[in-house]
Write a structure and sequence with these properties.
15 helices, ten-stranded mixed sheet, Rossmann fold, Protein-Tyrosine Phosphatase, Chain A, 3 domains, alpha/beta
Length: 477
């Protein structure tokens, strides 16, 4: 069976520079990935317009930066655009996309637009089933600490800058390489980091072997003289190292395995961060600390250290940058504290991510209870991974399960798949909340002083945490 990997309008052989695109229109400009590319194009002096289904801080920020942005979709929003950028979430029925195709405008996927703004830079592309945003944001902090002023495009706002994108003066361009629709194959990275390879986005790929094959193809896009940095502790990521050698680029492994090129030892996780000793690659027990709790954060930071070494940067400077890393929005992000309850928010939306984040949250919770509110993302992912989500969520003391955030999918295509598909299998005390507005009151009622509340998911669950804090404050008053 032939499966679609790249979007139909993507051309893997076409390499455009941003200056060749003319005036650019983004459909769904408020999204994390789209808004970053738009911001960089504005920095380059390109005329940018866009549309989004709703107003947001990202939309207002782009308007303030000079973009013409319309809330709501219509063919008129295109204006005089010559190039239209779309994500895989945009359906063919979108009036702007339909009008662009009818007018014969250049229509390109988000990744191709990103590749265009990276022209002339040395892309350091971070790929993997999970950890991309945290790793890329750490990479920015490490390169910046070495005085190299990197460009970047990240799926979340850095706390240090308040932005998700920047056009720097240095050679390096740190970027997330999203594998969801296969468009990461449009990149030509100088260095690629692969944190892990696991089944996901099976609605696009069909099966895990096709996912794995796409990652091997991604490695083959690394430019001559470049390098692959891959996790030795992940079987499928480690398999990419052989492909890198066959492709003629440097292969660097990292992890806790004794044969890893960069080896972590003396790893210690606490509520305030993670520390370890790094050996190999010319290091001799370099002490590394990152202010983000969790075993997975140690591995992510180690990949950054290895990539910086491959870039020829001073590893001590890179370690200093990791030490001063202040995090990124929606990655175990403190929303607020009220009535003795701390409320955090996290973007985890794959079972492995959820498990890793809850293990880290346990360290932060200390003696308090861990209360998790989870919103599944996509019906297809919920259907495939319901039992694994349930096992991960069972690490909590109490679980509130919201209904599925559909994103680009329709409930009609997945009869019987709801948040309750997961809730029925959770071993911890659990409650299914099919009505969105019930989540915040239920969390506020359940929480007591000393508890840690974490809202988890890639959808609009992120809006629940602030409401919980407000309710707790009103109760406390």
């Amino acid at each position: 069976m032939t499966r679609r990997v790249l979007p139909a309008y993507a051309d893997p052989d076409r390499r455009l520079a941003a200056a060749e695109l003319g005036a650019v229109h983004f459909i769904g400009i408020g999204g994390a990935g789209m808004s970053g590319i738009a911001r960089i194009m504005l920095q380059e002096g390109i005329v940018v317009s866009g549309s989004d289904a709703k107003d947001s801080a990202a939309v207002r920020g782009l308007q303030a930066a000079g973009a013409r942005v319309q809330v709501g979709h219509s063919a008129d929003a295109l204006g005089d655009a010559q190039t239209v950028v779309v994500s895989s979430a945009i359906k063919p029925t979108n009036p702007e996309l339909a009008a662009a195709l009818a007018r014969g405008l250049l229509v390109i996927p988000r990744a191709e637009a990103l590749a265009a703004v990276m022209a002339g830079k040395k892309p350091v592309a971070v790929a993997g089933a999970h950890g991309k945003t945290s790793t890329t944001s750490m990479l920015v902090a490490a390169i910046d600490a070495c005085g190299a002023d990197p460009s970047y495009a990240i799926g979340g706002d850095l706390h240090a800058t308040g932005r998700n994108a920047h056009l720097g003066t240095g050679e390096a361009f740190a970027v997330e390489a999203d594998e969801s629709d296969g468009s990461f194959l449009l990149f030509r990275p100088h260095i690629a980091i692969v944190t892990n390879v696991e089944p996901d986005h099976l609605d696009n790929y069909g099966d895990f072997q096709t996912v794995l094959a796409a990652f091997h193809d991604f490695v083959r896009t690394i430019t001559p003289g470049g390098a692959l940095v891959a996790c030795a502790d992940d079987e499928h990521a480690a398999s990419l190292l052989t492909t890198a050698r066959e492709h003629g680029v440097r292969a660097i492994s990292y992890g806790e395995r004794p044969d890893a090129d960069l080896r972590l030892s003396e790893l210690a996780v606490s509520a305030t961060g993670t520390a370890y000793a790094a050996n190999g690659l010319g290091l001799d027990g370099l002490r590394v600390r990152v202010a983000a709790p969790g075993h997975h954060m140690a591995l992510n930071s180690a990949s950054v250290l290895a990539a910086c070494i491959a870039l020829g940067l001073d590893p001590q400077c890179a370690a200093d940058g990791l030490r001063d890393y202040t995090g990124v929005a929606r990655r175990m992000d403190l929303v607020g504290e009220a009535a003795g309850v701390r409320v955090y928010d996290d973007y985890a939306h794959h079972p492995t991510e959820v498990r890793a984040q809850l293990l880290a949250a346990r360290e932060v919770a200390g003696d308090g209870r861990l209360i998790v509110c989870f919103q599944p993302h996509l019906f297809s992912r919920t259907q495939v991974f319901a039992d694994q989500f349930a096992a991960a969520l069972s690490l909590a003391d109490h679980v509130l399960l919201m209904d599925v955030y559909p994103a680009r999918e329709s409930a009609a295509d997945f009869p019987g798949v709801t948040g309750d598909s997961i809730a029925r299998q959770v071993a911890a005390p659990v409650r299914f909340l099919p009505v969105w507005d019930d989540a915040a009151p239920a969390l506020a009622e359940l929480a007591r002083p000393g508890d840690l509340v974490v809202t988890v998911g890639a959808g609009d669950v992120t809006e629940v945490g602030p409401r919980v804090v407000e309710l707790l404050r009103s109760q406390d008053g």
